[in-house]
Task: inverse folding
């Protein structure tokens, strides 16, 4: 996969580092050479200095071989121009746009643009956490909620317990867990041992959250 990331701020640099080493090529474009410092010393891709919707700049970045272009500059107008050039002039298979102003979302959909709106994502995440009424909320799936929390077994007077012994009587599902000393980090089976302080990802029916709440501790995460 050949990826061009337009914009090397916090989002662009983190995106580049996530694909660093796993994609066939990662090229980061930004008008400010100083912004490439955000990539650190371990970045093995290429950087191109210039305005990302400029034809010569995109050619230097390898636009005609690109599988993905991510327009994540700090300007909606610039991101839109980059997307239009990449998708319509160079027929890049997947063009993704960062959107700041959610009121433009319908227009982007009408243009056929794949976008991510940080404003909506943050607002939705906060709304979900408020309406969930519980800390550690990750996401909701119909009547079920996925929670992430540090396990507290003090209410049952134990320091450790098997997955099965915890799940069966309390009717919730541990999806994955990790231990601070890294001795365990896995998708569990029925015989896996959980300890107080383990970070768990659990799926819980909404009606059971008041009962499961006693096992949830958030101060131990870190």
Result:
């Amino acid at each position: 996969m050949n990826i061009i990331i337009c914009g090397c701020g916090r989002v662009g640099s983190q995106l580049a580092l996530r694909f660093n080493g796993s994609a066939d090529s990662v090229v980061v474009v930004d008008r400010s050479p100083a912004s490439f410092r955000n990539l650190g010393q371990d970045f093995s891709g290429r950087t191109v200095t210039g305005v990302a919707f400029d034809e010569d700049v995109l050619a230097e970045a390898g636009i005609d071989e690109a599988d993905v272009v991510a327009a994540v500059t700090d300007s909606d107008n610039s991101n839109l121009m980059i997307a239009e050039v990449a998708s319509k002039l160079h027929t890049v298979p997947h063009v993704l746009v960062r959107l700041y102003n959610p009121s433009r979302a319908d227009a982007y959909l009408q243009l056929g643009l794949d976008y991510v709106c940080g404003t909506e994502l943050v607002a939705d995440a906060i709304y979900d956490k408020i309406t969930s009424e519980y800390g550690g909320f990750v996401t909701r799936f119909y009547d079920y909620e996925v929670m992430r929390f540090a396990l507290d077994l003090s209410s049952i007077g134990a320091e450790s317990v098997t997955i099965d012994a915890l799940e069966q009587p309390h009717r919730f599902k541990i999806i994955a867990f990790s231990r601070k000393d890294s001795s365990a980090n896995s998708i569990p089976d029925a015989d896996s041992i959980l300890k107080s302080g383990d970070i768990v990802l659990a799926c819980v029916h909404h009606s059971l959250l008041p009962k499961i709440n006693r096992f949830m501790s958030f101060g131990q995460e870190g």
About this structure: The radius of gyration is 22 Å. The mean pLDDT is 86. The helical segments are 10-19, 55-61, 76-89, 105-110, 118-132, 163-170, 209-212. Residues 56 and 122 are 36 Å apart (CA to CA).
